[in-house]
């Protein structure tokens, strides 16, 4: 009989107890944490570089999209990099330690884009109002000037 590649997740009674059962001192967790910190720092430091952020955003979403395949591959080869088999058939583990932090980074980027858009719209509206006020002053002065010259011609 062939040994299953995934652990059974019917024994998991809660996310908190599941997180407590993980051996966080496994060396590959340090690499995963470093990856998440690097992605977060990159997302924050490049917030004014729209093209790069779009590429980063799409790459992160692709990683989340392929997390099921990554989970299957990790479940098959877990002995190469881990002390325990964490990769369950439903993908709870990879969702918690891999996909959720990536999606949080994506949400931070979207929030940053919305903030930048609102700031841009605010400054655009201010510029429009300044331009309208300037045009009113210019129109008012030309009307006053034209009115004076018309009166002077009548006299």
From TrEMBL:
InterPro entries from the UniProt entry: TMEM18 (IPR026721)
Start and end residues of each stretch annotated as Disordered: 131-155
UniProt topology in membrane: Multi-pass membrane protein
GO MF term (any one): DNA binding
UniProt entry keywords in alphabetical sequence: Coiled coil, DNA-binding, Membrane, Nucleus, Transmembrane, Transmembrane helix
Listed transmembrane segments: 28-45, 52-71, 91-115
Compositionally biased tracts (Basic and acidic residues): 131-140
Main location: membrane
Subcellular location: Endomembrane system; Nucleus membrane
Pfam family, one: TMEM18
GO CC term (a single one): nuclear membrane
Similarity section: Belongs to the TMEM18 family.
Annotated protein name in UniProt: Transmembrane protein 18
Species in which this protein is naturally found: Cephus cinctus
Gene behind this protein: LOC107266396
